[in-house]
Automatic annotation (TrEMBL):
Binding locations of tRNA: 18, 81, 83, 129
Role, per record: Hydrolyzes ribosome-free peptidyl-tRNAs (with 1 or more amino acids incorporated), which drop off the ribosome during protein synthesis, or as a result of ribosome stalling.
Originating gene: pth
Family under the similarity heading: Belongs to the PTH family.
Subcellular location per the Swiss-Prot or TrEMBL entry: Cytoplasm
Protein name: Peptidyl-tRNA hydrolase
Lineage summary: Bacteria, Bacillati, Actinomycetota, Actinomycetes, Micrococcales
Enzyme Commission no: 3.1.1.29
HAMAP family, per database record: Pept_tRNA_hydro_bact
Top EC class of this enzyme: hydrolase
Residues at the site labelled Stabilizes the basic form of H active site to accept a proton: 108
Known partners and oligomeric status: Monomer.
Amino acid sequence: MSEGPWLIVGLGNPGPQYACNRHNVGQMVLDELARRTGATFGSRGGLLSRRPQAAVAESRLGVLPGGAPGPRVVLAKPTTFMNVSGGPVASLAQYYGVPAERVVMVHDELDIPFAEIKLKIGGGEGGHNGLRDTTKALGTKDYVRVRVGVGRPPGRMDPADYVLRDFTGPERKDLPWLVDAAADAVELVVTEGLERAQLKYHTRA
């Protein structure tokens, strides 16, 4: 597990008007990971394209069993809109030499109740446009997903409208805990493996 690096991507939409939306919870988790490691996000547009496509920070994350420093990680927040996230992800993976199985996508998930976290590698995208575009750009579904539950919309609300709304007042009380737990899940994936992380987060009370 110490051989790296890993590419950890938080999905969301750019701009302050979207920053607190449910759809941007992945980027909230990336901000927490950067805070933990003392890393600072900067542009990586010049080496990838003529326009900035992602805010990137490089660091080490966590501690390996036995006490050695955790693996090298590239933390990335695409600066494109959600439905065209794949290009920046694929470009970063190619530039840093990261295989798909070491790409970790952190994203909101409608089909998981709010404040629950599930993890998987491969499988379908569940209608998530950011994941669909990432699969297309990488040419494979076999990347890790840290799925942060935001729950289903109430009544007949359009799911597309629901994810582009901010968390409710009661949800915001639990949001710091959820973001922290999702960051813990990412850290466990890169230090001890996906199966260990699944065992912990899929069996939580």
